[in-house]
Design goal:
The protein is an alpha+beta fold. It has 5 helices and 16 strands. The strands form 2 sheets. It has an 8-stranded mixed β-sheet with strand order 2-3-4-1-13-16-15-14. Strands 6-7-8-5-9-12-11-10 form an 8-stranded mixed β-sheet. The longest helix has 14 residues, at about 90-105. The N and C termini lie far apart (about 50 Å).
């Protein structure tokens, strides 16, 4: 795309929660992810922003949450991100997870196949729509490294993000952005579990595989989703470095898409824009990462603030409900 390096796949997915404490318990104690950063929403420092990932928050392994207390329920619908996949090593791992979900009373379906991959659909305590997907026959973007202090055995630990499903009313508009702007290639399709008329279309970028795949589902029969707790706020795609991101800012602007311009997030640099169906896309750099302001052994234990917020720490902490995330 005009001298740009291809996007490298999913960077992170950010969602909404009404309860940071229960959210922390579910994603660390139930799913076994590591809280690699406890910080604040940089656009609204009165609320937490929690990052869960592999052992160090490698790009492509993060699922993050903004806490908005008293947030209402989600009314599912179209023009939204309707499921987020998390990769595990093997089909055998799904057997482990099915037993774990039964034991811990996690709302889940049975093991099924989605686009040729063994999978389990499940929901968190707020109805967040998630899928565990086996990496057994996967190629392409490599997964991360599960934390060795996770309650989940390392061989069954979550490796990172898999395919993200976009459900839209006008699929050609989103497909055009994916292929003509972002450089994705349409690879294949598979039957939809909710729409007998139109198959789910598969788009991949970079090295391809589950960690670089977007599923595009057409649903013109649904109302627009009304987001709430458990809904997905945006999906971010990996950009190699800051120089590349600045090129993307120029391209997106030249193509006429309203956008955020270059945004400093300290742990990475970003660009935000909405595709024509209204889904928020972010492009984010692979670095600097989460270990540049905390020791690796103690990631996520204390409230981390970028340097440009440090002079506001006392005021910021006063607005936040204490959240104990120290190692037990």
């Amino acid at each position: 795309m005009q001298g740009l390096l291809p996007l490298k796949g999913q960077h992170h997915v950010s969602s909404l929660t009404a309860n940071a404490r229960e959210n922390y318990q579910f994603y660390t104690k139930t799913l076994g992810l590591r809280l690699v950063k406890k910080t604040v929403n940089q656009d609204d420092t009165s609320v937490y922003h929690l990052f869960y990932a592999d052992e160090r928050g490698n790009p492509g392994t993060d699922i993050t949450f903004f806490e908005i207390p008293n947030l209402g329920r989600t009314y599912p619908g179209t023009n939204s991100i309707t499921s987020v996949s998390l990769r595990v090593a093997s089909d055998e791992s799904l057997q482990y997870w099915q037993q774990r979900f039964q034991l811990l009373e996690v709302d889940h379906d049975g093991i099924t196949e989605i686009n040729g991959r063994a999978s389990i659909r499940f929901r968190d305590f707020e109805g967040q729509r998630l899928v565990l997907v086996s990496d057994e026959n996967n190629t392409g973007v490599k997964g991360g490294t599960p934390w060795d202090k996770s309650p989940v055995p390392r061989e069954h630990g979550i490796l990172g993000l898999g395919p993200v499903t976009l459900t839209v009313s006008r699929p050609e508009r989103t497909a055009k952005v994916l292929t003509q702007i972002l450089g994705y290639q349409e690879k294949e399709s598979f039957p939809s579990s909710t729409n007998r008329k139109d198959p789910v279309r598969v788009f991949e970028t970079g090295e391809g595989g589950a960690g670089a795949a977007i599923y595009l589902e057409a649903r013109s029969d649904l109302p627009r989703e009304r987001p709430g707790r458990g809904s997905v706020h945006h999906v971010a795609f990996r950009v190699d470095n800051e120089e590349e991101l600045k090129k993307w800012v120029q391209l997106i602007t030249e193509k006429g898409y309203p956008n955020s311009g270059f945004v400093e997030r300290y742990y990475f640099r970003s660009l935000y824009f909405r595709e024509p169906n209204g889904i928020l896309f972010e492009l984010a750099t692979d670095g600097p990462g989460f270990a540049n302001d905390e020791d690796f052994e103690h990631l996520g234990e204390s409230l981390a603030l970028p340097p440009y917020f440090e002079n506001q720490r006392q005021a910021i902490e006063a607005k936040l409900k204490p959240l104990d995330t120290g190692q037990e």
